[in-house]
């Protein structure tokens, strides 16, 4: 926790889901704010899904000053080392998007030499990191003796979304955040358009200086009150519904996968996430390409056996984001700001990114009360968040548009150029003849760095035929030596890391 810093005034958060409580915890514990109030309505409740995270969550949690064991216990969390994609390229393929950077970091020198080794090479992910072998052996990313939030493998977590929100609430209340239970019925604005106060249904009035809209898909402040338009992305990313189930393990000591399994189906894909006591499974699908009944059949076919008696919960969502996420003294964070289907777990990671920017831009002394500085911060925030949203759309679409599946309209439509953003089409046209270059990316705006693009492109079997051959790329010998080092290190990496469930039992205090 940091020492107290001058306050930007009274902060009022509307909404008590992951976005609301992560905001409250960050303001109170990481940023040392003293006047934070959160209003939530148990009548509405929270969305309660969102079980996969991104490695940034580790520094977010460390910043909150909590211990990893306590977090694992409280949120029913497990380790996630990436996403295994089954059936996305041909229907019968499998590839891994690891969180580990390739050997050599972001250096692109290895890629052309791997491309030139066609016919005599391991997969790209297996050539440049040991992580796929680690996950396929069911190993954890760290050892008992590693410090909190770090280990030899890069990792994030899976957790129970409702328990995570409860945990964040507990630690926020302990840090002095005020919680008000109630339904916001009216939003009062000043003449300049800034929000002055909220009126609850029972008549109570909550005044503030900065309002954080974490009201979920309702977008109560940023959308309904301030009228920020919604930029829909449904013509590119078709999925707009999900059916979710919580399926008990078939035995208490069943192995827990240390990765998310994402399996492609006729009109979407299933997530399969292992928690200590159960699996979270959901089918994300496009209502334009299948009915809810067909979706349920696909989900049940996937879950069987073990799910016959369970009733799935349906979630509907619009894919897209708000034109402006920060207007005047209101900042939208979480689903109110935007949402894309859960592929690659961008929801919570965008909450973390927004909170970091708010911490840097708004909270330093003075800028919240200096209207010109505040509005300049808002413009910068909106530009950066919009760029992030656009690039995430591009990255998610990459998972679909280079498929070679033609078995259903869903996959054919996904590869139809009309659904592919123009900048992605331009990149793909070039990547047919050269590997991606760092000049293809503005790294500060990317949530997914170039190595993630490489893992998806070449995991999907995308073909790059090097124009002019390998001759213009130096470093062939070094590249082959690097691939050999990775192959040689994988046995030791696997044997030095513990079984996933065994480590969780230990860290959760059960052994
Ligand atoms: P919510 O949880 O909906 O919370 C909204 C809050 O606002 C509630 O407390 C509600 O009571 C309150 N509220 C609303 N109106 C009022 C009012 N008038 N008065 C008082 N209170 C009000 N993200 C990931 O990072 N990883 C994933 O794997 C992932 N999977 C997902 C799968 C699906 C199918 C969906 C739909 C989303 C997924 N997400 C995922 C996104 C993730 O769930 C959200 O980003 C995250 O839970 C934050 O939600 P939220 O707090 O913005 O909204």
TrEMBL record:
- Annotated FAD binding sites: 16-19, 184, 335, 348
Q: Give the record's keywords alphabetically.
A: FAD, Flavoprotein, Nucleotide-binding
UniProt binding sites for 7-chloro-L-tryptophan: 80
User: Which InterPro entries does the record cross-reference, listed alphabetically?
Assistant: FAD/NAD-bd_sf, Flavin-dep_Halogenase_NPB, Flavin_halogenase, Trp_halogen
Q: Per UniProt, where does L-tryptophan bind?
A: 344
Pfam families, from UniProt?
Trp_halogenase
Instruction: Please name the SUPFAM superfamilies in this protein's record.
Output: FAD/NAD(P)-binding domain
As one GO molecular function, the record gives: monooxygenase activity
**Active-site residues?**
80
Task: Indicate what this protein is called per its UniProt record.
Answer: Tryptophan 7-halogenase
Q: Which organism is it from?
A: Sphingobium fuliginis (strain ATCC 27551)
